Amino acid sequence: MKRILVVGEINVDLIFRHCEALPAPGREVLADDFIVTPGSSSMICAMGLARLGNPVSFHGKLGADSWGEYCLRALGEAGIEIGSIVPDVALKTGVTASLSTPADRALVTYPGAIAALHADEVDQHLLAAADHLHVSSYYLQTALRPGCRELFARAHAAGLSTSLDPGFDPAQAWGLDLLDTLHEVDLFLPNALELASITGQADLLAALQALDNGRTRTVVKRGSQGCATLDGERVLELPAFAVPPVDSTGAGDSFDAGFLHGWLRGWSLRDSLRWGNACGSLSTRAAGGTSAQPSAAEAQALLEAMP
Ligand SMILES: Nc1ncnc2c1ncn2[C@@H]1O[C@H](COP(=O)(O)OP(=O)(O)OP(=O)(O)O)[C@@H](O)[C@H]1O
Ligand SMILES: [Mg+2]
User: Going by CA atoms, what residue is nearest to atom 19 of ligand 1?
Assistant: First the structure.
C-alpha cells in the first residue's frame, strides 16, 4: 500500500446550521443546530484517505490553542501520523464560521496559522517515509506557494508521485506561477470554477487541453454533475452518484481521497474516477466535511450497486 504524505492547512469549521436567515448588519439570528468539525481541505482529504484504509501522515501548522488541540486529536484519532506537527505559541489556529440556511451559505475564515507553513519545513525524512505527496489550497497557503514547485521537485527526486488541489483563490488573481508549478504535479484536482478561472476557458475540452503540459493529469470536479478528464482528444465524463445531499462542504476533498485511493493502486482511470465520485457523493450525506466520509467497503457497495 502506498504511504501518503499530506502537507497543508489546518483549520476548524464552526457550522451554524438551519439559520432563520443570514444575518443583516446589526442583527442577530438563531441557528437550529451547531457543530464543530475538522475543516480545511488538506485535513478533510487526509481523513478521507485514512478512512479508506490508507497509511497517511500529515504536516502543517497550528497554534498552541484549543482549536489546534482539537485538530491534532481529530487527525490522531483517524490514525494519521502527526509526529512532525509542533503547536506554535506565536500562531493561532485558523477557524471558519459557516452560516447556512436551506437556500444559501455564508462563510467567514480567519486563516491564522494557514499562512505560516513554508516548503522548507518539509524535510527529506518526511518525504523519505512516503510514496505520494498531496497538497491542497495553493492560494490560501501564501508562504508555501512560492516554494511549492521546488517541494514537488524534491518529492519527485525522492521517488514520490505528487498531487495538487488548488482550491479557490480569494483574490481571484489565479496567477501564472501555478502553471509553472504544474510541471512538477502528476495529478491536478481543481473544481469546474477553478479550472475555468485558471485557464480563462469556459469550454471544458479547451480548458483541459490548455493545461495539457505532457506530465499533469487534470481531473475536474463538477459538483452534482460528477467529474471529467481528458481521454486523448475527447473529454471522459463520469456522473456523480444520486445521494440526497445534506451538505456538500468538503465533497471535493473527499473526491480527491477516493480518486487517489484508486490511482495509487494502479487502477484504471475510469475506476479511479468512479471511486472519486463515490467518495465525493457519499460525503454529502451529513453536515461537515468528514462525518460521512465512506470506508472502502461503503464506497465499494455503492459502486457495485450502480455499475
Ligand atoms: N450534490 C451532489 N450530489 C452528488 N454528488 C456530489 C454533489 N456535490 C458534489 N458531489 C460529488 O463530489 C465531487 C466533488 O464535489 P465538488 O465538485 O463540489 O468539489 P469542490 O467544489 O472542490 O468541493 P469543496 O471545495 O467544497 O470540497 C463531485 O465530483 C461529485 O462526485
Ligand atoms: Mg475544492
Answer: 252
Q: Is the CB of 47 under 6 A from ligand 1?
A: no
Cβ(250) – ligand 1 distance below 6 Å? yes
Containing structural domain, residue 189: 4-302
Can you read off the three cell numbers belonging to residue 111? 486563516
Cα 220 to the chain's mean position, in Å?
13
Rounded CA separation 62/71 (Å): 8
Q: Is the CB of 63 under 6 A from ligand 1?
A: no
**Domain harbouring 12, CATH code:** 3.40.1190.20
26 Cα: distance to centroid of ligand 2 (angstroms): 32
With respect to residue 240, please indicate whether it lies within any of the assigned structural domains: yes
Residues 226 and 239 sit within 8 Å (Cβ to Cβ)? yes
Residue 52 lies inside a defined structural domain of this protein? yes
Mean pLDDT by 10 residues, the chain (307 residues): 97 94 93 95 98 98 97 98 97 94 86 95 97 97 97 98 96 95 98 97 97 97 97 96 89 98 98 98 93 98 93
Q: Is residue 223 part of a domain?
A: yes
User: 126 in ligand 1 pocket by Cβ < 6 Å?
Assistant: no
Distance between CA atoms of residues 236 and 114, nearest Å: 35
Cβ(11) – ligand 1 distance below 6 Å: no
Whether 307 maps to a domain, the answer reads no
Domain count, the chain: 1
Q: How far is the CA of 228 from the centre of ligand 2 (A)?
A: 15
